[in-house]
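Researcher: Going back to the complex we discussed earlier. I've cleaned up the inputs and rechecked each line, so this should be the final set. Can you rerun the prediction on the complete assembly and write out the structure?
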Amino acid sequence: MACTESDYAYLRELVLKQSANLIDPSRNSLFDAKLIPVVRRAGMSNLHEFVRLLQSERPTHLHRAVAEAMTINETSFFRDVKTFNLLRENILPALVERRRSARRLRIWSAASSTGQEAYSIAMLLAEHFPETAYWDVKILGTDISQRVVEYAMAGRYRRLEVNRGLPARMLLKYMTRHEEEWQISPRLRAMCDFQQVNLCGPLPSLPICDLVLLRNVLLYFSQQDRGHVFRAIHRLTATDGYLFLGNAEQAEESTHHFQAEFSGDTFFYRPVSNGW
Ligand SMILES: C[S@@+](CC[C@H](N)C(=O)[O-])C[C@H]1O[C@@H](n2cnc3c(N)ncnc32)[C@H](O)[C@@H]1O
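Model: Rerun complete. Updated structure for the full complex:
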């Protein structure tokens, strides 16, 4: 039996509660396409029946599986070249200089998807800031989806994924080929940790970070949830640290907590000291 409008309304509400992701009713057909494997795994023959099952149970792994299946995990190595150029030429040199006596760096890829963002930062550090090899450096990648967190932990990428954004020289230097796949080197893997975290829920204990990448995820949140996320991230950003958003993302809700700065036509944020 086909899904009714009230089935879709229930699914939209479920996703909003579980992951804070807003799905516009005009995109209802995404449920039909993306939930097929979840419906099958639950032993149901169609989405309408599956919705009845969800409605009859208290929130369980099935409800989480729906929210997880609806996430958009699009990412790539060195996504947005201008941002990575700015990090390499301006932001990381300044941070490395300021942390030279502490010899410690904490970087957070919040909404890290399958890990390419975290590993791109690890490659930048290894390639251009060799002294940090002897420092206490951790790059933390977090995402609401356990599936992509496990993918990132494995650090193994398909040809199509390494062909997107990763210069051939870096590929050969920092990854090894295993038949059709490429494995991140143990050295870079050791710099990165991955963890499942819902940015819109209560955050677990996380370190104060020198650099936070919150890119291409805000667009899925309501204005209220964006405000919550900025407050939480402000608390976890070093007073002299940096925040990066996605290129096309606006951050009106951030103004109490972060101040925008421009370098060329690329912008980044610095925490304001009286953020609340
Ligand atoms: C489009 S990807 C962006 C990946 C990477 N930051 C980039 O810019 O390439 C968005 C990611 O945000 C994650 N996400 C969505 N809602 C989230 C939430 N409430 N908490 C944490 N991560 C979330 C999704 O699972 C997805 O992997």
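Model: Worth noting: Residues 15 and 40 are 19 Å apart (CA to CA).
Researcher: Good, that matches what I expected from the previous run.
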